[in-house]
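Section 4.2 – Deliverable D4.2 (structural model, holo form)

The reporting period included a commitment to supply a predicted holo structure for the target in complex with uracil. Inputs used:
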Amino acid sequence: GPALVQEEVAGANLDELRAKAASCTRCDLYRDATQTVFGEGPKTAEVVFVGEQPGDKEDFAGRPFVGPAGKLFDRCLEQAGIERDECYLTNAVKHFKFERRGKRRIHAKPNKGEIKICAWWLAAELRLIRPRLIVALGATAAYSLLGPQVKVTRDRGSMLRAAIGPPVFITIHPSSLLRVLDQPMGQLEVERFVDEMKCVSSFL
Ligand code: URA
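Output (C-alpha cells):
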C-alpha cells in the first residue's frame, strides 16, 4: 500500500515515475483506457491539485484537465490569481474508467479498490514533489488522500490533515459545476469555488 516504502520506485525521479506508470497494470482499468494519464506540472510546485480520474478528452490527450471540466477549472484558477503552470495537477486514479453507450464513452466512478491501488502512484508523486498544500477536488480525491471520514459537502472549504504530509484543502470537483452552470444557482456555485481557490492562493 501507499504507506509502505515504495521500493519499486524508491530512487526514481518524477520523469522516471511517469515512465513506469505508463505500463501500470496494478488494477484492471488499463485494459480499456487509451493510456495512463499521469500528473503534470513543475516538480517544485507548492500546491498539488488532485482530481478524480482522467475523462474522455484526457484519456486521448494523455494529459490531465484538458476537457470541459479542465477548461472550467482553468477559468476559475485564473479568476483566483493562480497560475496553472506553476501548479502540479494530477488525479487519484490515472486511467479513464467508462462504460460504452454506442459510440459514446460514459464516465464511470472508480471504486474503492481502484482508488486504493492507484493511491500508490499518488503517494509516490507527493513524496517527490513535497508540496506545501494539497487540494482535493471532490470525493474521490478526498477518499484517496484522507479516507472515508471526509464528506465533501460538509468539509469543503476546510483544511484537513493526513497522518503524514502537508495539509489537504477540501473542495468540490469542477465537473460538478458543469452540471449546474445552466441552473439559477449555478453562477453562485462557481463563485463559491473561485472563493475557495482564492483561499488556496492565500496559503501560497
Ligand atoms: N476530471 C478529473 O478529475 N481529472 C481530469 O484530469 C479531468 C477531468
